[in-house]
Amino acid sequence: MQSVTLEFRTEDLVLLGLIPEDLFAKYEEVELLETLRLEQGWRLQLLRVRRKGALRSAAELERESRRIRAVYGFETFELVERRPRTRDYIVLVRQRNPERLRRLLSLAGGEVSPTAPFRISAEKVVASFRGEEKALRRVLRRLDREEFPYRVLRASGRAYPPDAPASLLTPLQAEMLARAWVLGFYAVPRRITLSRMAHQTGRSAPALGKILRRAEGRLVLQWLSTEGSVPVAVAGAPDGERVA
Pick from 113, 95, 104, 112: which is nearest to 44 by CA? Predict the structure, then answer.
């Protein structure tokens, strides 16, 4: 697997219909947090949207959901979280893909997916993709052939180095751990409950809890082995009790 990070001019993507024309009249930045489903005709994505002014309440967004869907081309729009301190909304949206994006997805053959970092501002778009080398090269050649302006910021031979902690996890554990981090499950204070996150993933809270604990256990074990020794507290001492 390889990954590549590209930079586009936002105005070019607006002209192609990939970004709504008036998006940045009210918003500063959009970040793709996770792509939950990517089909040739549509996509389901978790986004962080930073507003220029004060955030609207959840009730106001609910009342305006029909207008929001019409203006920005969403089939569905769900508010996951409001973050007033940073002026961010976390939203789950389903969108139909424009024709040019459909052609690129068809060319990729399901072997390329967007990944972090993926940020959109009024001036530029930094977009990262991970996938099979041949599929990535096919897509880049198509962009070149259509004289679509872009700049390669970074390219790597592997999405995850063999010794990275992520390689210790199963694909399901890596996916759920990443989603928990993005949604603020590990924030202090916690921004989302286990039950609510489980509902979004279609799992029960106990099942999701087991997945996360097993992933956490593997990462802790990796850290302990890297450190080369086990702290006394881990060896059996109660929390907060010192052992001479």
Answer: 95
Q: What is the pLDDT, as a whole number, of residue 55? A: 93
67 token code pair: 């207008």
Q: Tell me if 95 sits within 8 A of 43, measured CB to CB.
A: yes
Query: Tokens 């976390």, residue?
Result: 90
3-state secondary structure of 223: helix
pLDDT tens figures, 144-199: 777 778 888 887 754 333 334 445 788 788 878 877 876 778 888 888 899 988 88
pLDDT digits (tens, 9 = 90+) for 99-141: 888 999 999 998 999 988 999 999 999 999 998 888 988 888 8
165-232 maps to CATH 1.10.10: yes
- Where do the H-state alpha helices sit in the chain? 10-15, 58-63, 65-72, 99-108, 133-145, 171-182, 194-201, 205-227
Residue 17 contacts residue 98 (beta carbons within 8 Å) = yes
pTM of the model: 0.65
Token pair 């604990």 in the structure block, residue = 213
Residue 32 near residue 118, CB atoms below 8 Å: yes
In angstroms, rounded to a whole number, what is the distance separating the alpha carbons of residues 202 and 36?
12
Instruction: Return the SS3 of 17.
Output: coil
How big is the chain by its Cα radius of gyration, in Å? Answer: 21
Where are the domains positioned within the chain? Answer: 2-156, 165-232
Reported as half-sphere exposure (CB side, CA atoms, 13 A), residue 244 has a value of 0
Can you tell me the distance from the alpha carbon of 158 to that of 162, in angstroms, rounded to the nearest whole number? 9
